Structure formats: C-alpha cells, structure tokens
Amino acid sequence: MRDTFVATTTEFLGDSRTVVVLADISAEAFAPAAARHPDRVINVGIREQLMVGVAGGLALTGLRPIVHSYAPFLVERSYEQIKLDLDHQGVGAVLVSVGASYDRAAAGRTHLGPADVALIDTLHDWTVHVPGHRDEVPGLLRDVVCGQDSAYVRLSTLSNARAYPGTGDLRVLRDAGPGAALLVAVGPTVDAALDATAGLPVTVAYTHRPRPFDTVGLRALVDSAVILVEPYLAGTSARLVSAALADRPHRLSALGVRREELRRYGSAADHARWHGLDAAGLRRSITDFLSPALA
Amino acid sequence: MTRLATTARVAEAAAPIDGRDQLAPLLERVRAGREFGANVLSTLDVLQVLYDRVLRITPATVDDPDRDRFLLSKGHAVAGYYALLAAKGFIPPDWLDDQGGPSSRLGDHPDRTLIPGVEIGSGSLGHGLGLGVGSALGLRAQGRLGPRVYVLLGDAELDEGSNHEAIAYAGALGLGNLTAIVVDNFSATHGWPGGVATRFTVNGWTAATVDGRDRDALHPALTGHHGHRPHVVVALVGDGE
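The joint structure predicted for all components is written out below.
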C-alpha cells in the first residue's frame, strides 16, 4: 500500500497545489519526487509537531498538504497540532499513515497505533479511509486530495485477497437473506470475517470508509443484530451504529483491537489472534453473540 | 453577532496613529474597567512599529495572497492587538466594547475565522512558529517572493519544544522570508542563559536584540533581514511586563 501511495502521490504533484510533508519516514521513497519538486516535497526531519504545523501554514497559503508518517507519530504525537493547526485554523490536509495497529508488532508498544481512528474521531467532519487492498488506494486518495476538507488515510501491511474499490459505502459481499445478522468489516479485516461467518446466518458488508460512516446503507441492511469488525480500537464506530439505529431495537457487538498492552512481540498475525481478530477468534465472538443462550 | 460600526467610525479609527495616545482610548474600551497585567502592554510598541512602518497589509488587502503575514503566536496578548486592529480599521471599534462577551468575535485569544486581518487562531503556546514556517514555505513554493511572514512570540513561550523544532528547521533551510519576534520580558521560569537570540543564531538565523520600547531601534531591527536566512528580533522589555 505504501508503494501505491508514493506512486499515486507523485502523480498528484503534477498539480502545483499539492505539497507533501514528511518527517523522515518514507523520505527515501519520495526522493525522486523531491528532486523534481523541491519546493513541494518537504521533509522537516524527525519533527512531527512541526510537520503538522507546517502543513497548517501551507494550507493557509492555499496549498493542499499531504502529510505522512508512522501512525502513532502522525496522529498521537501531533494531536494538538491536528486539532489547532488544521481544524481550528479552518484549513484542511490529508494525513496518510503507515504502521497500522500492530503492523510492526516486533517493534513493541512505541510503534503500535490502534488508537489513531478513535483520536481522529474526536474531531469534526473528517473523512477516514482504511483501505483493505493496495488497489483501493489510488481512487480513495484521489477523492480526498481533490477535496478541501481534512481526511485520514490509514495504510496497512495487512490486506484482503482482493480489492473492493469504490466510494466506501457499505458493499454486501455475502447476503445471508432476511433476518440475518449484519456484519460490517472495515478495511483489511473482511477476509477473516468472511471465513469466520461461513455457514452462519450473517450478511457481510465491507467498507474502506468508516467516516463518514454509511448510516443509510446500515439502516437498509440491518435487521436487528449488528457486528462491527474494525482493525483499530474495538468500539470506535459503535456510537455511530447506536445513533443510526436509535429508533430500532437492536443488538451490537463491536469487535476490534483491545486496549490492554500485551507486552508481546511476534507478528501481526500473532497480534490478530491475541486480539481475537483472526477467523477463529471472530467466529468464537460471533457465535457467542448470536447464541447468547448457549454461551 | 456584533453589529457593524458605521463606515465613518471605522474610517476615523483607521487614521494613521503616531503614538500610544491614540491607541489608549481603544485599549480602555477593551479593558472595560478590568485589571490588565503589565504583560498586556509589553507588545504595544512592537505592534505599532509593525503596523505603522513594516507590514504591507491593510484592511483592503487581508485576502491578498501577496500580503505580508503577521502571526500572533502568544495569543493571550490580545488587548493591544485588538485595539490596534481597530485603530487600523481592520475591525470596527464597537467590537472592543464587549470583548469576551457571548456574542463577541473577540475572545481572550484570537480566532482567525472570526476576525478580519487575523492570520492565525492562537492561545495554546508554541503553535505560531510552525504555522509561520509553513506559511513561508507555501509562499516560496508559489513563487511569491515579495511577502514576508512575521511571528510574534514570548520568551516564556519558547519553553514549548515545538518552537525549537521550527527554529532548527527554518535555520537549516535558510528560510529567508521568515522573521520571528520574541518579546522578552524575562518571564520564562528557568530563563534563557546567554540570551534568547543565541537559540536562534546557533541555528543560522540572523538576530537583533533591542529595547522593546524604543521604536527607533525596533524599526531597523524588524527590517534588518538579509534575504537568505531567517531573522529574529528579540525585543527586551521590563521584567514581568
């Protein structure tokens, strides 16, 4: 996904409004673009507060910044700059992260970033894209870069087997018919969700755009049971599902990355398993949720 | 929303001012009987030299892409700033009368989206210089080589580490269209041994340290940049002012 992001963004630099702001991460990958556009590929060094502050200043002069770093450094370390130097100034930028949740599990807690989407969600009117496949990246990136508002694009080393490009409205991948539970899988979780629900009365819908959440699609698809599967903090989108279904009796199971610090290394697949986000773990949670009497 | 003042009143207030006397009545309107700390007054001379003699910006050019930018980073220094914006005709003097009120556009910290001529919303310290570096880079990337970016900070504000990210980077880059102004009233809790300017010059900035009350000294300092390096003016004012 990162390679696709760099290639697509390099194309965007053909537009003289586009400017890329980096804090050393991926600077090497952008070196050819920087050679061609030295004033519009800006690497501030390992200074994430400055990276976002500079983006705010660039936007104040009418440019469209694409700001890129590791998820915890881009969103968590720079949160006040995102809040004040972008939102409070009334200007927008496109933030693009790598290092989603436990992509670099062996690096330990400092490089884990499961809280990024929840933090962005404290802000108003941000678009959030969580692509599940590299081929979804160019289209969604073009959509947000061509806009004026702020957007967060969360790239990952995890991927589904195939791409589901499009606007990000809920897309049904398996329809289990009337009365079935609705599972909404975000980004790279959908393959595991499809495996986990094989043979179960569960309709599976996919989105790579958790914000704005497709609440119209949700209302059209839901019967009474909803299962959210998100590759970041569990429950991040629960408030939106609850609000969208406030006028209907419904049950909700919100699955995702748990809050406790595991203090374990290993691989992303190990962490998915420990957080119950592999197919077997999801199936356990989902069957418990659907058969409370048997649990 | 606050009602607009008449055009005549704005024009009257926008007449050129030569000294603090003309600003005083406007400042009194902001004060409205409240106690002001000495720090409110510490920026007045710098602000007046900037708006009288340095900045190429008028109420008619607040949206001109080639205007100079003035970024007030120490956003609590608003009383003199608001009075000056009113004196220069950027805002109607009427706005001063209910500063901080429920329908006022003028908070205890400024909001750029509510006040004409205000380039940034500030209040949390340590944000203006980064925004200033970005503005300077944005102007340069668009080939706008005329306008200059001025950022006003305080010596205590320099405690925030984000400033030092911006100082080091602007110096390394030779960001020649940026001027930082540090009003030094010796209020940083742990001080700046060796002087504030050294934090900048070690990173390649040019610097001038002057009496922050002496307008004839401030003017050459504020216009003393050379073109290929960022410039800092340290304006010394009385202890705790």
